[in-house]
Amino acid sequence: MLEAIFTHQKIIPVITLDRVEDAVPLAEALSNGGLDVLEVTFRTEAAAAAIQAIRDQVPAVTVGAGTVTSPKILQAAETAGATFFVSPGATDGLLAAADPKSFLPGVATLSEMMRAFDAGFRVQKFFPAEALGGTRFLNSVSAPLPQLQFCATGGIHAGNLAAYLALPSVLAIGGSWMVPAGYIRAGKWDDITRLAKTACSLAVSAIGPGLDKTVQSKGSLSHE
Ligand code: 3PG
After folding, report:
1. Which of these is catalytic: 10, 125, 188, 224?
2. Residue whose CA is closest, atom 7 of ligand 1?
3. How far lies 217's CA from each of 71, 203, 204, in Å?
4. Residue 43 sits in which domain range?
5. Which atom of ligand 1 is nearest to the CA of 157?
């Protein structure tokens, strides 16, 4: 299912919400800009209710949970109705509790990548991408570990996303640059839609139409 999500959409907005009431207008703003797969991080008290509100009120959007750092948070995210789950790392408890079809473990070293792969997780979150060496690191990883695929996040923005999406091992990238906290606080939904549209067109130019890594295929994703 992660592969299907990242084939459908190459850029995942990583959202942190202080107020539950911002969840629905934000999800609509991103969806209007062409981004209908979103990740809401469990970094605030509002996370679970925000995921639930988006799930219930914006059916066009597929909402995942981020910052899932323990099995307890995984459980809370499942209860809230998240479709997929993302962690900055990978503990034994999470690797045992999570489903490789819907959980993206965070990895930063080759040993972590190999360990997560041994546990069944072929698609992984490379985080924090830029701080770790970015595309140069990922390029070096592909020779010894060609079976792995990544969603890269951490320090990615409109100016460097194309270099990531050009790598065969990168299925998608994530980032928070199109959902600035100040815009959310001020309800600047049109500006967020504009940033989302720019992100989508950058992804299209990075990958090109008609290639395997289809951007924004038509129709919504199944939540199954
Ligand atoms: C994440 O958890 O993926 C990051 O917070 C996103 O990174 P960014 O804020 O540097 O885009």
Report:
1. 125
2. 154
3. 33, 13, 11
4. 2-211
5. 11
